[in-house]
Fold this sequence. Notes:
seven-stranded mixed sheet; 362 residues; 15% strand; binds pyridoxal-5'-phosphate
Amino acid sequence: MAHVKLHIPGPVEVSEKTLRAFASPMIGHRGQGFKDLYGKIQPQLQSLLYTKQLVYLSTSSAWGVMEGAIRNLVHKKVLCCMCGAFSDKWLDVAQRCGKSAEGLQVEWGSPIRAEQVEAKLATGEFDALTLIHNETSTGVMSPLAQIAALKQKFPDVMFIVDAVSSMTATKIDFDALQIDVLLAGTQKAFALPPGLTVFACSPAALSKAAKTKDRGYYFDFVEFQKNAEGHMTPSTPSIGHIYALSSKLDDIFAEGLDARFARHRKLAQMTRDWAARHGFNFFPEKDYESVTLTCVSNGARPGGRSVDVAKLQKLVKDQGFLIDGGYGKIKGTTFRISNMGDETEESMNRLYAALDKAMGQL
Ligand SMILES: *Cc1c(COP(=O)(O)O)cnc(C)c1O
């Protein structure tokens, strides 16, 4: 069967080169070969995250570490900043972990704003917060630097940040932001297969985790640190993913971080230009649009065009491309187009040509 190229916001298309690295012959995870592999990528990961902390590798999708952060770091009560499907779900996950949790809910399409977070933290009730930098369901990017600046005022609050669909696509300076946990699954902007999560913890997060009872084993942050010091992981990792990550990190540094960030900004703008040319509005509030995907309004916002999304998807799929028909409660009233990972102006132009053709057939 012919492969349909992925332009959904995760998993995204994986290159032949990455797939070849993923299929490398197996090695033992306690042997020198593995330590050399992790030892080679550790400084690359530290450069990518702008951190001196060790960067950990978890064989799980992002939710494993998102839940792990709750289990390791919440003693009192966690504030869950909610602005879309993934961030809304984090409240539910915290409650399922038996933690006291409260939501800071804003309308889907809006970002989380620092003033709103500050007002909540000022109550003194919270010792942790969860924030999704780039809410993939709505295509909204929240102002991370402004929110992270609150850490100065609330040093005892653990700032847990999901950068699943923004890590590698835009600069996130872990040390300068002084946040406590930063994590990303690899099937989004890394353009690797799903099943691995990359994350880092602040020294404060590690010492708090060490004092946390019932933090379990598989996602115990203290275990990750102890093992990473010897270039290892707590349990047997998906070694294929780590070969693929090594190959991808070489690609990322060959391109250069700034060039990679600029490419993502440019391609997101090109997608917005395509949608505007066809008379569509956008779902995200202006100036908070993601750099990795575009969430097009298809009737969710007043004015602007709306089309039969299922039909559009089918017409595009027949030409070899998969786009997303909207997530959760905005399915059908929005659709999403990803430009994250390995995409280029050329590859995006091929997609827009297919979309143009499909629009003509609606
Ligand atoms: C995809 C996504 C997740 C969930 O990742 P899983 O790989 O399904 O665990 C979480 N947060 C964001 C922002 C995402 O885009």
